[in-house]
Amino acid sequence: MEITVAKSAGFCFGVARALEMVEQCAQDKETTYHTLGPIIHNKHVVDELAGRGIAPIESVSEAKPGDNVIVRTHGVGKAVYEEMKNREIGITDVTCPFVKKIHNIVEKHYKEGYTIVIIGDKNHPEVQGINGWCENKAVILGSEEEAKSAKFDEKPLCVVSQTTFMQKIFKKIVFFLKNTCNDILIFDTICSATEERQNEAHALASVSDMMIVLGGRNSSNTQKLYSICKSVCAETYVLEHIGELDAQLYNNSKKVGITAGASTPAVIIKEAICKMENFESFESLVEESLKTLNTGDVVKGTVIEVRPNEVIVDLGAKQDGFIPAGEISDDPNVTTADIVKPGDEIEVFVVRVNDADGNIILSKRKLDSAKTWEAVKAAAEEGTVLEGKVTETVNKGMIVAYKGYKVFIPESQASERRVSDLSGLVGNVVAFKIIDINERRKRLVGSVRSVLEAQKKELEEKFWADAEVGKIYNGVVKSLTNFGAFVDIGGVDGLVHISELSWKHIKHPSEVVSEGDAIEVYIKDINAETKKISLGFKKAEDNPWEVVKSKIEVGGTTTVKVVRIMPYGAFAEIIPGVDGLIHISQIANRRIEKPQDELELGQEVEVQVTEIDWDAKKIALSIRALLAPEAPAEEAAPEVPAAEEAAPVAEEAPAEETPAEADAE
Asked: How far is CA 544 from CA 539, 585, 608, in A?
């Protein structure tokens, strides 16, 4: 006997998704869950869920406030959601995404004034749910004859279809409507998987001696598969399980085809194959192959295949295990191939030994999470420093992700100093310690501050052990004041006085450095008792008095710029940071009353260097020395007051006297 199973037989995407979501609900022991009607049209699945505490109810009124109602894959009308909300009933919506799309189409076009036409079985829960999004005013057509007898008003039509409806009948109805209605919008909402399943069933039935359709008797898509197969294979049977079929009927068949409705678990299909191939009963086979595995076990296996959506693991039993992609890692940015490869030995947690799809479901993530939790507890006890990324800010703190766990960092523990806006830290990797654990609720509280303080203390101890005058450091400017800049030189801060920032006069440190700048400094003075450190920034080789030595000499000439005018003369800049004095008697080759009679600020003049005192940092300049002598004057120039002659030739004016004020004199 040759047995062929349709590739598309069994759970569709929507059903598989729904059961995965319901499985998560079943693990929640603190909430009472119900399904609004059977979750799918399959008694096997419904009974199993009921045994785990999730039983179906017929109406919302049967649920109590605080309960959670699971909206099944077929979907429900808008009024049902409103009723649950008004009665304070929680909602877990597992409506098939393809059905939800139809709800949106119907609601939108009904509000825009369209008459809604639903092609499908008027008694099917999916159709009833769709109708609930247009106030139950849709025209429902199940055949071409019903379409021909239907009466429509003058409104434009919006046509949708039950996702599991027969494509052949849908096309006939649409063809008629297009030829009889002028203003019509048609949405082919038959699920592509349904059409594929129906086409495959037709092709398989046409080459089989006998065709078996497995599925619930009240399943619409199962009955449609039966009709399709029956049309080309007279010996077609629809069964809820293989035990309903007399063995004598298939023992004599050469070619047997098997397909199944979208709500049929793989376990039913596998049972049929086993029995028809004269294996032991399916139940005893499962018991034998899984006798050493139980939910909650931790086992080792070998990776035999890595797919984008799952990993297949050889557990040493007759049945392989499956790790869904979501159970590989907590990191959404990694793929299955990033974590494992074929041949890897892997330790996993057994989630279920026989899910609704007939598989052993495994989880690496749950096992990793359990191991991480134990490691986190040990880290808390030992004060171990951990690292994680700041993912978001929350009320009074921020969240740091650490290997699948969320660690709450209060504002007061986010930095050495209290920071009111933590948004700038989002995306940063931070070091922290666990300071509190809620074992029951698996909640963690951490501190970045404690790590920073410990690091600072360690750096301080190291600094004071090695610090000495003259030692050079690469530091970072932490803050600026009117009198200087504080620089972090490795866990401790030192002050660079404003006078040490530049060889020329500056009014504020910001003229030279900014917060965050990396600069090279050296220790000028240190007080280990008061922990005060005086830092130097100016370099000797940059001293303009050293630079100018190579540029001028007594008797030489140079061009200078007038920068300040005083009653007794003018100060001129030789190079930035070095000024010389042109005494009033050296400005012209004649007697003048005031320096500003001959000079103005910013003027460039040629001078001769007449005197240099490097130790006192005084330079005397003369314009007169470069001028031709003038005829003797009738009166001798007045004597220069002794005080003026004694004035420092390269010393700056008193601090309180500005150039403008000097000029005004």
From this structure: 10, 27, 19
Q: Which two tokens stand for residue 644?
A: 């003026």
Answer positive or negative: Cα dihedral of 191, 193, 194, 196.
Answer: positive
> Distance between CA atoms of 559 and 627, rounded to whole angstroms?
15
Report whether pLDDT(138) > 80. Answer: yes
For domain 547-664, the CATH superfamily is Nucleic acid-binding proteins (2.40.50.140)
Q: How far is residue 45's CA from residue 16's CA, in Å, rounded to a whole number?
A: 12
Beta strand 397-402 with 405-410: parallel, antiparallel or unpaired? Answer: antiparallel
Sheet with 210-214, side-by-side order of all strands? 2-5, 255-260, 210-214, 236-239
**What is the predicted pLDDT for the residue at 541?**
65
Domain boundaries, the chain: 2-93, 98-190, 193-286, 293-357, 383-446, 467-538, 547-664
The domain at 467-538 falls in which architecture? Beta Barrel (2.40)
pLDDT band at 38 (very low <50, low <70, confident <90, very high): confident
* pLDDT score of 537: 86
Torsion of CA 521, 523, 528, 533, to 10 degrees: -50
Fold of 98-190: Cobalt-precorrin-4 Transmethylase; domain 1 (3.40.1010)
Annotation marks residue 126 as catalytic: yes
Range among 243-247, 281-285, 522-526 with highest mean pLDDT value: 522-526
Give the mean model confidence (pLDDT) for residues 415-424.
Answer: 82
Of the listed ranges 1-15, 161-175, 341-355, 361-375, the least confidently predicted one is 1-15
What is the dihedral sign for C-alpha 128, 189, 269, 301? negative
- Range of weakest confidence among 33-37, 265-269, 462-466: 265-269
Of residues 59, 78, 63, 58, the one with CA closest to residue 33: 63
Nearest in space to 559 (alpha carbons), one of 648, 473, 621, 474: 621
Residues 204 and 259: beta-carbon distance below 8 Å: yes
pTM above threshold 0.90: no
Q: Where are the alpha helices (DSSP H) in 428-496?
A: 449-466
* Fold of the domain built from segment(s) 193-286: Cobalt-precorrin-4 Transmethylase; domain 1 (3.40.1010)
- Alpha helix locations (H) across 306-392? 336-339, 364-382
* Helices and strands counted in the chain (H then E): 18, 32
E-assigned strand segments in 334-412:
345-352, 360-363, 386-394, 397-402, 405-410
- C-alpha–C-alpha distance, residues 539 and 546, integer Å: 11
Q: Of the residues 2, 83, 88, 126, which is catalytic?
A: 126
Phi and psi at residue 111, to the nearest 5°: -65, -25
Average pLDDT over residues 171-197: 88
Class of domain 2-93: alpha beta
Residue type, 257: G
d(CA 283, CA 260): 20
As a 3-state breakdown, the chain gives helix, strand, coil percent values, each rounded to 5, of: 30, 30, 40
**Does 267 have pLDDT greater than 80?**
no
Look at domain 293-357 and name its CATH class: mainly beta
